[in-house]
Automatic annotation (TrEMBL):
Source species: Kitasatospora phosalacinea
Keyword Ribosomal protein: no
Taxonomic path: Bacteria, Bacillati, Actinomycetota, Actinomycetes, Kitasatosporales
Membrane-spanning parts: 12-36
InterPro entries: FtsK/SpoIIIE/SftA, FtsK_dom, P-loop_NTPase
Stated name of the protein: FtsK domain-containing protein
GO MF, one annotated term: DNA binding
Record's keyword terms, sorted: ATP-binding, Membrane, Nucleotide-binding, Transmembrane, Transmembrane helix
Length: 445
């Protein structure tokens, strides 16, 4: 019998090649753009991800992550040479995603190759992929996630995205808003820990001297200062947090006596009353869109113990009354209160006060009792900040809708960078006041 080869015209061949060529070019462009936009560490991870995909068919059987697919009995008669049919080796399909810490491998499960098999193979994967650690999870049935770490997030000093490596400001003043998240840092699995000021309430940051607390506060203040629809109020008796933002904050106080701080809080109370009247007239109970005319108000008080434990009893009580009123009622009027202290004990912040501070970041503290004041169920947690070996810049954080507190490495934003951001704001016409004369701001920084 004669057979003929089907004829394919040049036009038909061209129509077949055009989509394939376009798909190939699109893939090349995507890979090139991803490489060019990636930082140095992510580029290393991209190369490692390619090696993982290239060697996967060899590594999977060695790690007992492949499954044998025996020929069904009903098809055995198709083998005419009398030899048994070899079972097929099925390899889990994988996809990879690289980041600055390593590679995340997502794989499909196979019969008898599920979560337990992957967990047993973790050491083989770690060695085969060249990772320091591999974490295996199963986010949903039929899928396995193997998170490989080239470097540990908690041990890595990560610069803030607000500031470039060459010492220039990466974000233009006024380019951010309350729709943007504040990037506080990364947890031990390399997940970003973010806070949205518009969707959150009040917060508390605690930690002893040299624990990295100031770097975390710098991040909060810098993001708020760069947001066009946020007004920043800073009260700081030591000037450590307030100094860079002295010229640009809406209100700022560095007095060590509670009276001046109480006056600032009284102004905040007046703003709450004004907004309550606006709610009545607008027949609403919230602000849906912030603006320069009606901004979100962020009130940050550093070293709050200076005021709540002040020797002037009447001044102290007045301050505490104003503070509690803002903490208990301010959130519904879009006032966000953040308190910073070294020791969050009951004589510094009452239980009623701490109850209103839902977002909590605890750097290293001296005692377990100090940690329990932030996290009452702390004895049941796997993490603790009452650890003398806790590295500087690492904290226990519970922010937003996080179910359990996690270890967090704060992004690195030194005070010098905050001054650079403040200078950029002043050059953009956002300066509200001059630096006070006779104050050693270099020492304060």
């Amino acid at each position: 019998m004669l057979t003929t080869t089907p004829y394919i015209s040049p036009d038909t061949l061209l129509w077949l090649l055009v989509p394939a060529t376009a798909l190939l070019l699109g893939r090349m462009v995507f890979v090139s753009v991803r490489w060019l936009r990636a930082d140095t560490e992510t580029r290393i991870s991209l190369g490692q991800a390619r090696r993982i995909r290239r060697t996967w068919k060899r590594l999977a059987p060695m790690a007992d992550l492949a499954a044998k697919d025996a020929t069904p009995i009903g098809l055995e008669h198709l083998n005419t040479d009398g030899k048994p049919i070899k079972p097929k080796i099925r390899i889990p399909r994988i996809t990879t995603k690289a980041d600055e810490f390593g590679v995340t491998v997502t794989a499909t499960t196979l019969p008898r190759v599920g979560l337990e098999a992957w967990q047993d193979a973790a050491d083989d994967l770690r060695n085969g992929w060249g990772m320091t650690r591999v974490k295996i999870t199963q986010p949903k049935p039929g899928q396995i996630t193997a998170r490989g770490f080239r470097r540990e997030p908690l041990d890595t000093l990560m610069p803030s995205p607000l500031f470039r490596a060459d010492g220039t400001v990466a974000v233009q003043p006024g380019s951010l808003s309350t729709t943007d998240d504040v990037l506080f840092g990364w947890d031990e699995d390399g997940q970003r820990i973010r806070l949205n000021l518009a969707k959150s309430a009040h917060g508390l940051i605690a930690g002893v001297t040299r624990s990295g607390k100031s770097i975390t506060v710098n991040t909060l203040l810098a993001y708020a200062s760069l947001m066009r629809d946020v007004q920043l109020v800073v009260i700081d008796p030591n000037l450590a947090a307030a100094a860079p933002w002295w010229r640009t904050a809406h209100k700022v106080s560095a007095s060590v006596h509670p009276d001046e701080a109480s006056d600032v809080l009284a102004w905040v109370r007046e703003e709450m009353d004004r907004r309550e009247k606006l709610f009545w007239s607008a027949r609403t109970d919230r602000i849906t869109a912030f603006s320069k005319e009606l901004p979100l108000l962020l009130v940050v008080i550093d070293e709050v113990a200076n005021y709540t434990r002040h020797s002037d009893r009447k001044a102290r009580e007045r301050f505490e009354a104003q503070l509690l009123a803002i903490a208990s009622q301010g959130a519904k009027f879009d006032i966000r209160l953040w308190l910073i202290t070294q020791k969050p004990s009951a004589d510094v912040l009452s239980t009623a006060m701490r109850t209103n501070l839902s977002a909590r970041i605890c750097h290293r503290v001296d005692t377990v009792e100090d940690f329990l004041h932030l996290y009452p169920d702390g004895r049941e947690l796997e993490v603790s900040a009452a650890d003398r070996e806790m590295p500087q810049g690492v904290s226990i954080a519970s922010i937003g809708d996080m179910r359990t507190p996690v270890r967090m490495r704060s992004v690195y934003l030194p005070t010098e960078a905050c001054w650079q951001i403040s200078d950029a704001m002043c050059r953009s016409g956002l300066q509200l006041r001059d630096l006070p004369t006779g104050t050693d701001f270099v020492k304060a920084a």
